[in-house]
Structure formats: structure tokens, C-alpha cells
Amino acid sequence: MTTTPLFDTPLFGVPAVRNAAPQPPATLDLNLDSSDAVPEELAFLATHGVVSGDGRNVTLNAQITPDLYRKVATALERLGGRYVNKGRGHAFTYDVTALYQAMLERGEVPEKNPTAFFPTPQDLVEDMLKVADLMPGLRVLEPSAGTGAIARALREAGCEPDCCEVLGLNRTVLQRDGFTLVAEDFLTYAPGPVYDRVVMNPPFSLPGDRSAWRTHVLHALEMLHRDGVVVAVVPRSMLYGDDRASTDFRTLIALHGEFEALPDGSFSESGTDVKTMLLTLHKAEWRTQPHAGWPSWGAFETQNHIENEPKFSARVDLMGSHAIAGKPFDSLLRDVQAFALKEGHPVHLTEADRAALRAHQAERQSERRAS
Questions:
Q1: Whether residue 66 has pLDDT greater than 70
Q2: Which of 18, 94, 125, 326 would suit a FRET pair with 151, their CA atoms being 20 to 30 Å apart?
């Protein structure tokens, strides 16, 4: 039988194989002594692990003791595998080849997803790059690079990215593919405002930081120069929460960015059904600048909603001068802001914006009465 080596050189003195048909069961004696630093489950996989052509299944082609099998299964499960049946072995929701190879090269069983790593699906990567509005030669950072799904797409777009990655297994994959690793822990990396783009799928939650995604996004903003842009996958829970950090972050979005809800199940192939959004943040505070005769973009956009959404225009048409000057108009503005947030284009209103909106509606009311 002819097999194709998974690696250019044998590991642990034996070649791992890929795309091979299962071998007849055989008894294997690994003969590992106590000085051997290679875990026996990885030595077994290097000899008898068979990766399918699409990288989504790993099977074993030799008999194995129950104790050793439990260790082998643990190693595969920590790569994201799930046992299916004797014919298919462990199934993966993504191409595991690169991580499997890195695990064997390093001779280390990975931890159990300590950084909440889920590979970014290819179709989502393409959407992220469209939003990022890339041009060849831009300086770009991928701060949670994983195994390089986003980084490879950035390279293909003509932007060779700097990468951060905390997991050694993933770093091995990135280094083999020639990516520049500028730091392991992104949160300790502080090069200053030097990047044109930061394109990221950050960890959503980490031990000690339930909103790690927000911590990472805020840190990324610090690395942008004045015209830079962050494009990030974030949890849909971003829209909720009444604590100060949550409300401050939504204000930040109203001043600097927009978002769109991603379809449910966008990460199903990567092993999670968490509901997500695609967030874009601009370093420049362009929304606070005068726009189309209004004090800011926020005031301009709010007036557009009032005029073009029947539920708002009908309410303001019924208001008298006292209502426009008082709480009913304040309530209307809050409802418009909630609507804009739900639409993915939140607005922030200053007192000057509110005064301009009141004056505009009072003038329209006077015109209607005069006519």
C-alpha cells in the first residue's frame, strides 16, 4: 500500500500518514522509556494516525490499549475532534491538518482551548476583508491569529500582516507559514499608533475577563494611526448590558463605528453557535464634526430617521411646542437612538445636537401653522 507522508521528515523516527486506507489491526509496542519526552499518545498518532483528505477526520490504523486510547482521544478532542464511529474516528468541523501537524512537531498535547480559540470560517474572513477596505501595502495587525485563517487572506490581499498568538501550537503553524510574530500576548504588545488596519476575531471570554473581546478591541484602537480602522468579530451581547463599561462602549461605537449582525450559526463549522456581529471602528472622530448643516453626523442621521420612519414622523407631527421643548421630544430622541442601535448605525447626541433638532422641529411646526 502506498501512503503520502503528512510531513517532509519523519517525527519520532516514524512517518505520520495522510489519506491512507486503514491498515489491518496490529499490536503495537511503542517501547517508550521514562526518558522519552514525547507523550506516548503523540508517538502513537505519528505512527498510526490517518488524516482524511479534507482534514476533517482522524482515524487510527492499529489496535490500541484502552488506557492509551483515552490519551489519544483526549489529544484529538483538544484539537476540536469528536468521536463519531469506528469507521470515521474523530471528526472535526474544520481542516485540522495544520494543528495536528504542529501538535506532533512540538510533541505537546494542547491545553483545553484556554483562549476560546475558534477558527474564523472562510466566508466570514472574506466579509471582514471587504469591510476593511484593504489596499496592497497597508500595515495590518492580526492580534489573535490562531492558525492563520485571517492572516492568509490578508497576505493574499497584498497586506503582509504582523501577528500575535498566545498558543504555542498555533504559533508553530504561523511560523511554518512564514508569518511575522510580533508578540505572544496581544495585550502586552504596545507599538504605538502604527497600523492602518487591525483585523481580528478576539477571544470573547477569558478567565478573569468575561468581556475579553472588549478589552482586545479597545487595545487594538490604541494601535491605529488617525485614519486607521479596526474590523472585529464580537458577540451580539455587545448590544446589552447596563453597566458603565457596556454603555461607554456603545457610545464609542456611536462616535466611531457601525456593526452588522452576522447570520446565526456563522461559527457552527468551527464548533460554536455563539451569536456574533461584525464591528467596524474608525480611529477618527468624524461623527462629531459638522455634517450637512447639522452640528454633527449624529444630529443629521437622527433627523433622517425622524423624517423617514413613519413611527417617528407621526409622533413628532402630533407634538405641540411644549412637547417639542420638553420630555415627549426627549423620549422620541431616545427611541430614535434605540432604533439606530438596532440597525447597526448607532448615534450619539450632544446637547448642541438636541437643541438643533428641537429648533428644526419647532420651525417646521411654525411653517405648518402658517400654511
A1: yes
A2: 18
